[in-house]
UniProtKB/TrEMBL annotation:
<keyword id="KW-0479">Metal-binding</keyword>
<comment type="similarity">
    <text>Belongs to the sulfatase family.</text>
</comment>
<dbReference type="Pfam" id="PF00884">
    <property type="entry name" value="Sulfatase"/>
</dbReference>
<dbReference type="InterPro" id="IPR000917">
    <property type="entry name" value="Sulfatase_N"/>
</dbReference>
<dbReference type="InterPro" id="IPR017850">
    <property type="entry name" value="Alkaline_phosphatase_core_sf"/>
</dbReference>
<dbReference type="InterPro" id="IPR024607">
    <property type="entry name" value="Sulfatase_CS"/>
</dbReference>
<keyword id="KW-0325">Glycoprotein</keyword>
<feature type="signal peptide">
    <location>
        <begin position="1"/>
        <end position="20"/>
    </location>
</feature>
<protein>
    <recommendedName>
        <fullName>Sulfatase N-terminal domain-containing protein</fullName>
    </recommendedName>
</protein>
<keyword id="KW-0732">Signal</keyword>
<keyword id="KW-0378">Hydrolase</keyword>
<feature type="domain" description="Sulfatase N-terminal">
    <location>
        <begin position="27"/>
        <end position="334"/>
    </location>
</feature>
<dbReference type="InterPro" id="IPR047115">
    <property type="entry name" value="ARSB"/>
</dbReference>
<keyword id="KW-0106">Calcium</keyword>
Length: 501
């Protein structure tokens, strides 16, 4: 081999090594999901609640202005884990799940399972709420190496009970040693331990599924005192709970920095649904709230932060949905999409977020969830349906949705609604409405009569989606769940085989 050829070969080999190294380098991922956080309850949306750590990350990253989730926690979490719309997971409805032998369908690969395939260590801290009727439904059998948290929709933040029974797991076992300790503080300690013990040469996926700011509204006195200027006692507690989340995020990001992981960490921040004004979460100036398909129920505060972003300090107005995290993170980390008879509904939006490219997504099915037609069925909290809604470009169509209004925060002069007001709106049905969300994000001007062609087009899209829907998977309560909970004084898996679809 002559000198020129040898030199050329040397540089080509080294060039390929550099390219391969850059290609396989995988970011650490910190995915933060706050429970029931309202659109107007973060500093970067103008809130009086202090969220300096959240605001710093948002301002130095990419704020997502047209980012959508589902109107309830379980459908959002299922969409996050699978990349599918709720009509394709069977979780269209609100899912209590504490007595229900159903959860995340087992035939779908989950996001953490796909990340494990490419070498990630995966951990969930906080709320699962995707089934616990069998051990196969628990997080450690759905792609997570560890689980420290709870399985139901909410619980006491100090004694960790749901409906009187303990709901606190480490892995697949109930843990009983944390009575009286505030849950979010425990989560921070667990996160710091995981980060400190992590092998830095291995990519890390940490899913922080915060319990706050879901009711019951509880916070230590030192945080409540920060907001004594807020006269509404429940709103003061809610503000303190979000303050605790912000402090937790600051402590967790500091742990990433101390470990030397921070420069290679991608942070995703989102709420799971809109705020609930009954529990003092607010979405003003957006219309509606948790449980509804109005913007206040499904348009969530969100941002992405990371040194690897090419654009920073910007607001992205492109359409993005919670289902998009699945394909985006799988492809970003070099994984392969799962094959299924039900394709992934999400899109890879990395170039949209990181580079400012147009979103590949031009429409979002917000949900299809019509009331069950059973004689004598009363409309209660547990049977609250959402109707149907879709956004295509600027236009959003709602069909047969419970009505909703606008609620301003108490500190800005608003009056918190009693639950009776919410019930009244729930039984007042809006059969059809069309809005230009870009021009009218607060949904005040119904354009349906002036645009019958657009109405027909969007109704046709909803009908096309409806043809692909699987039957709702929420099944009747199983009394054996309560029998074992009473026996063990804790919620535990109660079935030996999993019958989830």
């Amino acid at each position: 081999m002559n000198l020129e050829l040898a030199t050329t070969t040397f540089f080509l080999v080294n060039f390929c090594v550099v390219i391969a190294t850059e290609t396989v380098k995988k970011p650490h991922i910190l995915l933060i999901l706050v429970d029931d956080l309202g659109w107007s309850d973060v500093g970067f949306h103008g809130s009086k609640i202090r969220t300096p750590n959240v605001d710093r990350l948002a301002s130095d990253g990419v704020i997502l202005d047209n980012y959508y989730v589902q109107p309830y926690c379980t459908p959002t979490r299922a969409s996050l884990m699978t990349g599918r719309y709720p009509i394709h997971t069977g979780l269209q409805h609100r899912a209590v799940l504490c007595l229900t032998p159903f959860g995340l369908p087992l035939h779908f690969s989950t996001l953490p399972e796909k990340l494990q395939e490419v070498g990630y260590r995966t951990h969930i801290i906080g709320k699962w709420h995707l089934g616990h009727h069998t051990s196969a439904s628990l997080p450690t059998n759905r792609g997570f190496d560890s689980f420290f948290g709870f399985v139901n929709y909410g619980r006491d933040h100090y004694n960790h009970t749901h409906d009187g029974f303990l709901d606190f797991f480490r892995g697949e076992e109930v843990t009983r040693e944390y009575h009286g300790q505030y849950a979010t503080h425990l989560y921070v300690k667990e996160a710091n331990r995981i980060i400190a013990e992590h092998n830095s040469s291995t990519p890390l996926f940490l899913y922080m599924a915060f319990e706050n700011v879901h009711d019951p509204i509880q916070a230590p006195d030192e945080y409540l005192r920060k907001y004594k200027i807020i006269e509404d006692k429940k709103r003061r507690g809610y503000a303190a709970m979000m303050d605790i989340v912000d402090e937790a995020i600051g402590n967790i990001t500091a742990a990433f920095e101390e470990k030397g992981l921070w420069n290679d960490t991608l942070v995703i921040f989102s709420s799971d649904n809109g705020g609930d004004p009954v529990n003092r979460g607010y979405n003003y100036p957006l219309r509606g709230y948790k449980r509804t398909l109005w913007e206040g129920g499904v348009r969530a505060p969100a941002f992405v932060y990371g040194k690897m972003l090419i654009q920073k300090g910007v607001i992205v107005k492109e359409l993005i949905h919670v289902t998009d995290w699945y394909p985006t993170l799988v492809r970003l980390t070099g994984g392969t999409m799962d094959s299924s008879d039900i394709p992934v509904d999400g899109f890879d939006v990395w170039d949209t977020i990181a580079k400012g490219a147009p979103s590949p997504r031009t429409e979002i099915l917000l949900n299809i969830d019509f009331p069950e037609k059973r004689p004598g069925l009363l409309l209660t909290y547990d049977t609250w349906y959402t109707g149907a809604a879709i956004r295509v470009g600027d236009m959003k169509l709602l069909i047969h949705v419970p009505n909703a209004t606008w609620y301003q925060t108490p500190e800005d002069g608003g009056i918190a609604p009693p639950m009776e007001d919410i019930w009244d709106q729930k039984t007042n049905i809006v059969e059809l409405a069309l809005f230009n969300i870009s021009a009218d994000p607060t949904e005040r001007h119904d354009l349906s009569r002036r645009n019958p062609d657009i109405v027909r087009q969007l109704k046709a899209r909803i009908h096309e989606y409806q043809k692909t829907a699987v039957p709702p998977g929420i099944v009747p309560d199983d009394i054996m769940a309560l029998v074992l909970a009473m026996k063990n004084k804790a919620w535990i898996p109660w079935r030996n085989t999993c019958n989830a679809r």
